[in-house]
Amino acid sequence: MYRKILVAVDGSSTSEAALVSAARLARALSASLRIIHVTDSPYDYPDVMYGHVPGDLEELHEAWHKAGQEVIDRAVAVALREGCAGEPRLVEGGAHVSEQVVEEARVWGADIIVVGASGRRGVKRLLLGSVAEGVARLARVPVLLVRAPIACS
């Protein structure tokens, strides 16, 4: 069935729920698991977005890379806790995150993509967009959307 499972993580509780689901699925199917995180790059839009930010673009780039590596490292630890050794990949942005995720899945030959779905509605969805929705729209392989568990009070 699925031999190569790609999961995108961003450090949120929703992406952790997606990661746990992907790791369990990979373990159950004896499939390979690739864990990716897409970082922004200040070099893509230096004048538009970051031209007025004090400091240097290299420092900003290094800070984002370090933060992205921390997200990946935590994700690998979660996958291992679930009994699955995930192959980490830190992807530096350029295109929209959903486009990067779909391209990584295509290049790697993923059979399925797993992403967390935040469930944003209304203005938040309009302003922030939806990576999960973009992946589902663009992908040529099945996409598993995972919602974060609802905490009981």
Layout of helices and strands:
Elements: E1 4-8, H1 13-29, E2 32-39, H2 57-81, E3 87-92, H3 97-108, E4 112-116, H4 122-128, H5 131-138, E5 143-146
Parallel strand pairs: 1-2, 1-4, 2-3, 4-5
Walk me through what this model shows.
The chain has 153 residues and is α/β, with parallel strands linked by helices. It has one domain (4-146): HUPs (Rossmann fold, 3-Layer(aba) Sandwich). It has helices at residues 13-29, 57-81, 97-108, 122-128, 131-138, and strands at 4-8, 32-39, 87-92, 112-116, 143-146. A five-stranded parallel β-sheet has the order 3-2-1-4-5, with helices on both faces. The N and C termini lie far apart (38 Å).
Tag the structure with descriptive keywords.
153 residues, alpha/beta, Rossmann fold, 5-stranded parallel beta sheet, 5 helices
Low-confidence stretches: 123-128
Order of helices and strands: EHEHEHEHHE
Q: State mean pLDDT (0 to 100 scale).
A: 85
Main β-sheet, spatial strand arrangement:
3-2-1-4-5
Examine the coordinates and then state which fold CATH places here, giving the name of the CATH topology: Rossmann fold
Structural class: alpha/beta
Contiguous helical run count: 5
Return the CATH architecture.
3-Layer(aba) Sandwich
Rg to the nearest angstrom?
16 Å
* Beta-strand residue fraction: 15-25%
User: What's the helical proportion of residues?
Assistant: 40-55%
CATH C-level category:
Alpha Beta
Task: Give the total of domains.
Answer: 1
Note the overall shape. globular
Please report the distance between the alpha carbons of the first and last residues: 38 Å
